[in-house]
TrEMBL record:
Protein name per Swiss-Prot or TrEMBL: 4Fe-4S ferredoxin-type domain-containing protein
Lineage, broadest ranks: Eukaryota, Sar, Alveolata, Dinophyceae, Suessiales
InterPro entries: 4Fe4S_Fe-S-bd
Domain 4Fe-4S ferredoxin-type, chain residue ranges per copy: 386-419
Length: 440
């Protein structure tokens, strides 16, 4: 990729706008911050902005935002071009421009763009635009928090997003919680599935801002341990110390993965890449008592990876355990995420006997319904505490899995923390002079 970038720099005056925008997008997707390439493209693209189409404008602003490479002339020229092409912008292009400006910290420019674009977005965003809704809603929330505060277009958009998308899904998630256990779990999951399906909102995640709100409202945030439902059988480290350990452990695991894959370039000490299923890591700790204290399950802390396939996921735990923590059916698949892998392991350990045998999950002469009753009777008596850190905000499917865990185990306090992997590398800066910059 380095050689290709240098060749494009040499031929920059011969490149079409489409070539420049696609190349910048590709660098961003790979997390490659080639300084000479980005600077050269910025100069030429700013000069020829009137030749860029709507997709090219969206791609190049998004790419420079992801790579945290600010060029005032480029941004000004591309925003002027976006305004000229306003009627041609798609929902994804509007979202990409907003996300790029948000990532670059261009709050004033973001607010001006949103003031013109939010109404357009609502008019064209339809089924299948769930990720664009979530990304744009989070960009709007950031813009409102910045200098200038709320503004009419943002207020109307936030209200629409909250009432049409966020609240219906959060309502279903809340009905999976212990306090709402009266509604059958299968019925709630089916409602959630319909809400998040491609024919519904197609919302895959809430994004950073609204996931924080969701965790707090679902009692899955740190507060579950501070004045929460139960005390832990053993003491955890203070939350700040535990969170630091979780991030450090995941950072070291990511470095080891990159070195094993041979992808750690010289000078690339962070190995940051845009978040993907394979690259997201989780760290979990738990201390749980089952059987009235006759069995104690403890995990001081460990990194969990995504499963590489559904076969690998299903091979770890029994059908009984899998059925307790059901994911949503979405594309791409949501059943392989590391936070679900951690909870599957915990539930498997809770349902084994003291000799490590399947125990309650073993059917024997019992029917499936009788096994389910036995399993849930055992889980409801387990008590303790579970902490999970995830390097990227969890998807709605994984929030549902966490709510199912809390429903089955109302005496266990679950606390979840996460980072936004588009902004940070396990709590560290994604880029610096020594991290992730390809030499120019």
């Amino acid at each position: 990729m380095h050689g290709l970038a240098e060749e494009m720099v040499r031929r920059i005056e011969k490149l079409e706008p489409q070539h420049m925008s696609i190349a910048a997008w590709a660098h961003a997707r790979l997390g490659l911050r080639h300084v000479n390439f980005l600077q050269t493209v910025a100069v030429v693209a700013a000069r020829t902005a009137e030749r860029f189409d709507a997709q090219g404008v969206g791609n190049i602003i998004w790419a420079y935002g992801v790579l945290d490479f600010s060029n005032e002339e480029l941004i000004a020229a591309m925003l002027a071009r976006a305004e000229a092409l306003a009627g041609e912008l798609s929902a994804q292009e509007i979202s990409n421009i907003a996300v790029g400006l948000q990532a670059l910290g261009k709050t004033a420019a973001l607010r001006r763009f949103l003031g013109r674009a939010l109404g357009l977005f609502r008019g064209i965003a339809g089924a299948g635009s769930g990720a664009n809704w979530a990304d744009l809603a989070n960009a709007v929330a950031d813009a409102v928090r910045g200098e200038g505060g709320d503004f009419p277009a943002a207020s109307d958009f936030e209200s629409y997003f909250r009432h049409q998308l966020l609240e219906p899904i959060l309502g279903c998630l809340a009905q999976l919680a212990p306090a709402s256990a009266a509604r059958p779990e299968s019925e709630v999951l089916e409602s959630l599935q319909l809400l998040c399906a491609e024919g519904g909102s197609s919302l895959p995640y809430f994004g950073e801002v609204y996931t924080r709100e969701a965790l707090a409202r679902l009692r899955l945030a740190e507060a579950a341990h501070n004045g929460g439902k139960v005390s832990s059988p053993i003491g955890f480290a203070p939350w700040s110390a535990w969170a630091k350990e979780a991030r450090q452990s995941c950072f070291e695991a990511a470095q080891a993965q990159a070195q094993a894959a041979g992808s750690a370039a010289q000078g690339d000490k962070s190995c940051w890449r845009p978040p993907s299923t394979d690259g997201i890591l989780a760290y979990a700790s738990w201390s749980v008592e089952c059987g009235g204290g006759r069995k104690v399950i403890e995990l001081p802390g460990r990194v969990f990876l995504s499963a590489r396939s559904s076969r690998e996921s299903e091979g770890h735990e029994s059908d009984c355990v899998q059925a307790l923590l059901r994911p949503l059916r979405q594309h791409p698949r949501r059943d392989l995420h590391p936070e679900r892998m951690a909870l599957l392991e915990l539930f498997a350990k809770m349902l084994t006997d003291r000799q490590g045998q399947p125990g309650s999950c073993q059917a024997g002469e019992d029917s499936a319904a009788e096994v389910e009753i036995k399993v849930k009777a055992l889980l409801v008596k387990c008590r303790g505490a579970v902490r999970i850190y995830i390097s990227q905000y969890p998807c709605i499917s994984c929030l549902g899995v966490m709510c199912q865990a809390a429903r089955h185990c109302p005496m266990i306090a679950f606390a979840v923390d996460f980072d936004n992997a588009w902004k940070t590398h396990f709590g560290r800066p994604r880029f610096s002079s020594m991290q992730q910059e390809v030499p120019s």
